[in-house]
Structure formats: structure tokens, C-alpha cells
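User: Can you model how S-adenosylmethionine sits in this protein?
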Amino acid sequence: MERATASSGHLPVMYAQVLDGLRIVGDGAYLDGTFGRGGHARGVLAQLGPGGRLLVMDKDPEAIAVAEREFGADPRVAIFRGSFAALAGWEATAAGLDGVLFDLGVSSPQLDVAERGFSFGKDGPLDMRMDPDSGESAAQWLARADEREIADVLWTYGEERQSRRIARAIVADREATPLLRTAQLAELIARVMPRGDSKSDKGRIHPATRSFQAIRIFINRELADLELGLEAAMARLKPGGRLAVISFHSLEDRIVKRFIGARAKAPPANRRMPVERAFTPSLRAIGGAIKAGDDETAANPRARSAVLRVAEKLEGEA
Ligand SMILES: C[S@@+](CC[C@H](N)C(=O)[O-])C[C@H]1O[C@@H](n2cnc3c(N)ncnc32)[C@H](O)[C@@H]1O
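Assistant: Here's the modeled complex, given as C-alpha cells:
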């Protein structure tokens, strides 16, 4: 299988495994809920015949502009800017889908452009919104949230052990100087981090890594969107249709694993529930957690933390 190139600045993760997992049929309908720069979408389209359909979504206007430019003229392709959480509300999905892909998180171009405000390594406005036209930016939220809320977000979505210390410093500093730039926040975190904690367990990551991840997940409501997106995909998949999800951290993967597990396997017997409820599986897990191979992780550091899960919808209830 020919692999997509990185000409667009984003190397698709586990490209061959995703396309295998979706088990594409030429006249099927497939939805890529996270178009990014189209690495996976391009691969799906290459396997579709004239009767096939490719529906693409992204929250990010720049991703959608790329999709319009590259695929806008192809009658098999439909494009929608918005969250995959709302995919079932998009009319184009009403006829049912043979496959749904979510390749979660941010794309390389989002991280690389300082103006998007995702990166602690590149100074830019503290924004972090995948959709810059909706919701609060990171700067707006950090200006109004109280110390407890900030600490909770850093702890819940970043597992940052110094969450309280960082939150206290943010609230103290913002009195004098509003936090408006990514470099300001990264420096603040590096300053307050105790020596032993200023690096990761493996001693390699920047002290702001976990906090930036946490704020990004919170600002973009990533976990809530994922839960809604999985439900919506389930509602629109046809029997035999495939769901493929790539996660980049354990919070996401736990949601995907539980979602599939709860629909694929009967819950363990419960002594307090004497009458056994009939369980009809609505999904079949296709293998377990799939990881990128050594060659890919050597070439693309983003692939190191990626986990792909694939499931097939069964006949019966969603
Ligand atoms: C990892 S990239 C996808 C890369 C893509 N598979 C490729 O090969 O180019 C994730 C993309 O999904 C988008 N995204 C993340 N969460 C989303 C959501 N809930 N709804 C729609 N788009 C989302 C981001 O804006 C970003 O462009």
C-alpha cells in the first residue's frame, strides 16, 4: 500500500493499519472526522471507485481550506467544518457509513504555527483553539478562572503533580501582567516547578508539556467531543461498518477502550443483580491496541504515543 507523503506538513500515523482496519470497499461511504492535512483521507479516496463517498470534517478552518482546495471538485467528496461530535446531524451521513475514522488531537501544522498558540516551544498568542471562531481562548480562560479550577484542569487532563503550585502562580502573576503569550506561560511553569519535577520521569520533556496538553484538552472540550463522537459514529455506522480511532494519551484511549468493550463484551456477572439481563453485542473489537512499528516511530515522533483501536458494528441495537 503506497504511503501518503508529508508534503502537507503532517505525516499520517499508522497509515497502512488505518486503511486495513477500515477495510474499504470501492462503493462505500467513509467519514474522516479529523481531516487535518488529509493524509488518511487521501488514502481512503484512492481506494474508492466512482460510486464511493468520502465525508470529511474538521473544526479547524485551515484544515477545511486544504480539503476544499484539494478535494472540493471531486463529486465523491463532501466537506463540513465542525466537530465530529455532531456528525450524526450532518445530512450527508444520514444514508449510513461504512467506516469512520477519528485521528485525535492536534496536527503538526497546528503545533508548528506559533500564531495558533498550541506550542510552548514557539512564542505566540495563548490561544489553543482548534476552531479559533468559537469558545474561549486559553488566555481568556486563564484570565478569569479561579485557582481551584485551573489546578483541577491541570491535574485532570495533564496529570500534572504540581497543578496547585502552577495554578497559584498563574493567579498571582496575572494580577500584575495578563498572561497573553505561550512563552510567558511556559516560563512561568518552568520557574515554579521544583527542581526534581522540572523534567519528566524519563528526564526528557519540557516542564510545561503536561500543562499545555491539559489546557488544550480543556479549551477544545476534547474528551466530551470524543464521547459524543463515538456515540454519533455508532448511530451512523451500518452493520459491518468499521470504526477506527487513534488516541495519543491514556485519557483518550481509556474512553475508546471502554466504549468498545462495553458494546463488545457482556458485563461480568453481578451477585446483586439476580436476574441476568440479556446482552446483545453491538460491536466486535478487531484486535486490541495497535501501536506503530519501530520504523514509523523513528521517522515520526508523534507516532510513539499513538494507539489505534478498530471495531466493527454488528447487527442489532446501537
Ligand atoms: C491528528 S490531526 C489529523 C491528521 C490527519 N489524519 C492527517 O493525516 O492529516 C487532528 C485533526 O483533527 C481536528 N480535530 C480534533 N478534534 C476534532 C473534533 N472534535 N472535531 C473535528 N475536528 C477535530 C484537528 O483540528 C486536527 O486538524
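A couple of observations from the model: The CA atoms of residues 110 and 190 lie 23 Å apart. The chain has twelve helices and eight strands.
User: Helpful, thanks.
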